[in-house]
Amino acid sequence: MEQVSAWRSHGGTQGVYTHQSTETGTPMTFSVFVPDHAPGQKLPVLWYLSGLTCTHANVTEKGEFRAACAEHGVVFVAPDTSPRGDLVPDDEGYDFGKGAGFYVDAAQAPWSANYRMRSYIEQELPALIAGNFPVDMARQGITGHSMGGHGALTIGLRNPDRFRSVSAFSPIVSPLNCPWGEKALGGYLGPDKSTWREYDACALIEDGARLPDLLVDQGDADNFLHEQLKTGLLVMACRKAGIPATIRMQPGYDHSYYFISTFMADHIGWHAARLKA
């Protein structure tokens, strides 16, 4: 692991790092904010998964999370959304290929060689973070936006013993039922939709996965809401399963970081309350 950059901010250190990933077979870049803390102290960690077209930089530069993380003593980790490099296969569309890994382990060629974002987020990067930063891996939360909200929900539902808290901003709640999901899961996994269910939050809940509670914020002026995000499906799934879910429709807000940054401190405080020692 190499440090690319580091800045003092809000009583902490914002760093950007790169390493050679064994899962993706490419260099991968991520950012980590570490609040000031006592020597030897281990802090809870909040993972943030970004959306389509994004890298680690979008939330790092526009997410406005550092003041709240410093206040609550939470480490904030922001990975990239896909493998990168000249030899990595890509697609002409913004919603597939580079910048659109969908947090799956691809099963179809040529994507399967590099697009292993599920294993990267669930296994490889946590081991790297645990070995190099002052984190308490028994106190982890996860959140994300749009495609990253889909990632946060599905990873949280598949790993309930790892994550004490799960939230999302404008998540894709059911890739089985939207054009983004049809393209991504069909391309990465193949036509057998039974293999898609482990990457669909509503399907996971229907199949028995549970969370102790959930926080979701969604703007009602989001132009992707009705065709791609379909928040109502998650409302119905949680209600049917008895999952205590706070799913808030925020009047006038869209899909942008103006929206995310507005509610970021709320989410960090919500996670911090559940990540106490």
State the end-to-end CA separation: 29 Å
Taking all Cα atoms into account, the compactness measure Rg is 17 Å
Shape: globular
Strands, count: 9
3D architecture notes:
- Helix 2 (66-72) packs parallel to helix 9 (257-274).
- The chain has nine helices and nine strands.
- It has one domain (2-274): Rossmann fold (3-Layer(aba) Sandwich).
- The chain has helices at 56-62, 66-72, 117-132, 147-158, 179-189, 201-206, 225-229, 231-241, 257-274; strands at residues 2-8, 12-20, 27-35, 43-49, 75-79, 135-144, 163-169, 214-219, 245-250.
- 34% of the residues lie in helices and 24% in strands.
- With 277 residues, it is an alpha/beta fold.
- A hairpin with a 6-residue loop joins strand 2 (12-20) and strand 3 (27-35).
- A nine-stranded mixed β-sheet has the order 1-2-3-5-4-6-7-8-9, sandwiched between helices.
- The radius of gyration is 17 Å and the shape is globular.
Topology:
Elements: E1 2-8, E2 12-20, E3 27-35, E4 43-49, H1 56-62, H2 66-72, E5 75-79, H3 117-132, E6 135-144, H4 147-158, E7 163-169, H5 179-189, H6 201-206, E8 214-219, H7 225-229, H8 231-241, E9 245-250, H9 257-274
Parallel strand pairs: 4-5, 4-6, 6-7, 7-8, 8-9
Antiparallel strand pairs: 1-2, 2-3, 3-5
Helix pairs in contact: 2-9
